[in-house]
Write a structure and sequence with these properties.
It is a single chain. By secondary structure, this protein is mostly beta strands. It is 0% helix and 55% strand. It has strands spanning 3-7, 10-12, 18-25, 34-39, 45-51, 58-59, 67-72, 77-82, 91-102, 105-111, 115-119. Strands 2, 4, 5, 6, 9, 10 and 11 form a seven-stranded mixed β-sheet that branches. A four-stranded antiparallel β-sheet has the order 1-3-8-7, with no helix packed on it.
């Protein structure tokens, strides 16, 4: 079973940046789609960005322009950087592996437990 572990959350000041990492281990596929999601307080989990090893990312319109996803196929890692953070970006951020899109929603075979990001002064 593929294991997904996020790291890098914490307290960030408004206007600052966050950098999250995701380690993926186990019987992985080289062409799997991997991505980041977040759950704002009291809301559903929302898609942020996705990528495959060696390709560019795709982004949700809500974060396009201030969000960047990257990957490292040697270390089996993906990363998320988000700039100009606002208090509304406070959420639990999740990494997910082997995404498929059905009916406009992403589904994943493996999810991390999430990492809390709090944007506050």
């Amino acid at each position: 079973q593929v294991q997904v572990v996020e790291s890098g959350g914490g307290l960030v000041q408004p206007g600052g940046s966050l950098s999250l990492s995701c380690s993926i281990s186990g019987p992985t596929k080289s062409d799997a789609l991997m991505g980041w999601f977040r759950r704002l307080p009291g809301k559903e989990r929302d898609f942020l960005a996705a990528t495959r090893f060696g390709t560019t990312g795709t982004y949700a319109d809500s974060v396009k322009g201030r969000c960047s996803i990257a990957s490292n196929s040697v270390q089996n890692m993906i990363y998320l950087q988000m700039n100009n953070l606002k208090t509304d970006d406070t959420a639990v951020y999740y990494c997910a592996y082997d995404l498929t899109l059905h009916g406009g929603a992403y589904y994943a075979t493996s999810w991390g437990r999430g990492t809390q990001v709090i944007v506050s002064s």
